[in-house]
Design brief:
This protein is about 50% helix and about 15% strand. α12 links the parallel β7 and β8. The relative contact order is 0.15.
Length: about 325
């Protein structure tokens, strides 16, 4: 009897696992069908990288933040900048349509190297580099570790200094081996895209989400298993990587513009940019009163102005 019970339990668990895998795959297929790649898929040292190029002018790389993809940049900012710049927007590893570099999520230094090689293959040797939020940390790593391979830096709402807040419980679970194996497929299978839309609202607060943003960016892409795992691993290791990056800020000698909202509760202005501005020689900080974590959407003029100043300081305007 005990043996039969164990067999029955085993078969039930196997059936449940197959059902979860099927539902997760169906959710992923829907997301990818509704939001296919916008740009081209490149082979960079054996890695598939999704990049979109638009416009003419000085080369400008746009790096998106956590959980997102390059569509965050193409909603409004990239088309506007393409009137005067050659804009290159890239999906970071494991997000959008760029493959993961490794099973640990890829460090900000590894991501910076991959994006740098991508821009070179696209003909941009020393671009202006803009990063938002987590993407700002990647941009800082690019500037600190490869200071000769960019012409200017713009960091928007970027984490840059150590913090004391604990890792979000969701990332603690999904970055663990057990959570990656069990929780991630369940999230993909059963969490509706509307829950991601609610999270987007909190990230934009206190400003509202621009009309049409969620439909454009493809929130369902965030819930794919590969993206959940990559994002969790990247977030879990970010603090240690920022601590390691700090001593190299003095190596950043290119024109640097920091943009940060005073009402940003995701990446605090006083914890990060207000300290960072004194660590990078010649850096300037634009404080945006009352603005939250998404200035490149809700204070777009200020971000564009920072890019133009960086380009002018670099002799590209």
């Amino acid at each position: 009897m005990a043996g039969k019970l164990l067999i029955a339990v085993g078969l039930s668990l196997a059936a449940l696992a197959l059902a979860v895998a099927w539902l997760a795959a169906r959710h992923e297929a829907r997301a990818e069908a509704s939001h296919p790649p916008q740009g081209q898929i490149l082979d960079i040292g054996g890695h598939r990288v999704h990049a979109l190029v638009m416009g003419r002018g000085p080369d400008l790389v746009l790096i998106h933040g956590a959980s997102g993809n390059l569509r965050d940049m193409t909603f409004s900012l990239a088309p506007r900048l393409a009137e005067r710049y050659r804009v290159i927007a890239i999906d970071r590893p494991g997000l959008g349509y760029t493959d993961r570099i490794n099973r640990r999520g890829a460090s900000i230094a590894q991501q910076a190297e991959l994006l740098m090689k991508t821009t070179r293959q696209l003909g941009a040797e020393r671009p202006i580099v803009l990063g938002h939020s987590y993407g700002g940390a990647v941009a800082l790593a690019w500037a600190a570790y490869y200071p000769e391979d960019l012409s200017a830096l713009v960091a928007v709402s970027s984490p840059s200094m150590p913090w004391t807040a604990p890792l979000d419980p969701l990332y603690r679970v999904t970055s663990s081996w057990l959570g990656s194996a069990l929780a991630v497929p369940l999230i993909t299978a059963f969490v509706p895209d509307s829950r991601v839309d609610e999270a987007v609202e909190s990230i934009f607060a206190p400003q509202p989400v621009p009309e049409g943003y969620a439909a454009h960016v493809g929130t369902g892409l965030t819930l794919r298993r590969v993206s959940l795992r990559a994002n969790a691993d990247q977030r879990a290791s970010l603090l240690d990587e920022i601590i390691a990056l700090q001593p190299y800020y003095a190596r950043i000698t290119v024109p640097t513009e920091l943009v940060h909202g005073s009402a940003d509760t995701t990446v605090g202005l006083s914890i990060h940019s207000e300290i960072l501005v004194d660590r990078i020689p010649g850096a300037t900080l634009t404080r945006l009163p009352g603005i939250g974590h998404m200035p490149h959407h809700v204070a777009e003029d200020a971000v564009v102005a920072a890019i133009d100043r960086a380009a002018a300081r670099a002799g590209l305007r």
